[in-house]
Amino acid sequence: QVQLVESGGGLVHTGGSLRLSCAASGRTFSTYYMGWFRQAPGKEREFVAYISRYGLSTYYADSAKGRFTISKDNAKNTVYLQMNTLKPEDTAVYYCAAGTSRYEYDYWGQGTQVTVSS
Predict the structure, then answer these.
(1) What are the residues whose beta carbons fall under 8 Å from the beta carbon of 64, sequence distance 6 or more?
(2) Burial of 16 by CB count in 10 Å (0-12 exposed, 13-18 middle, 19+ buried)?
(3) Distance (Å, rounded) from C-alpha 67 to C-alpha 6?
(4) Whole-number Cα distances in Å, 6 to 47, 56, 62, 63
């Protein structure tokens, strides 16, 4: 069982930056693939980025490439999402998730709101 708690969301202006954090419980954090997803009002949840168990591999949605960076600190049981050059269309609730593969996520956090004003 893994419990995930996101933090770091907030209100920023267009072009601003935020760093989201996701703290995980449990001693097996390093064995999980970690992903970030987001859900905007009225839209389905969408994939943003993932990082492999030991941080050797990452992958981003096209909307995130070049602006967002996912990283993982296994010593701190934490995964981060650095978001730069934010746009109003990035406004959403952001969720982190843990899974045993990059395609299946078994545990989800409660989400953190990111709002980008124009």
Answers:
(1) 48, 49
(2) middle
(3) 20
(4) 16, 22, 23, 21
5 three-class SS: strand
Q: What is the pLDDT of residues 4-51, one digit of tens each?
A: 999 999 999 999 999 999 999 977 888 899 999 999 999 999 999 999
CA pair distance 2, 55, nearest whole angstrom: 18
CA atoms within 13 A on the CB side of 3: 2
Sequential DSSP letters for 40-65 = -TTS--EEEEEE-TTSS-EEE-TTTT
Give the tens place of pLDDT for each residue, 92-117: 999 999 998 888 999 999 999 999 99
What is the Cα–Cα distance from 26 to 30, expressed in whole angstroms? 10
At which residue do the structure tokens 């969301």 appear?
9
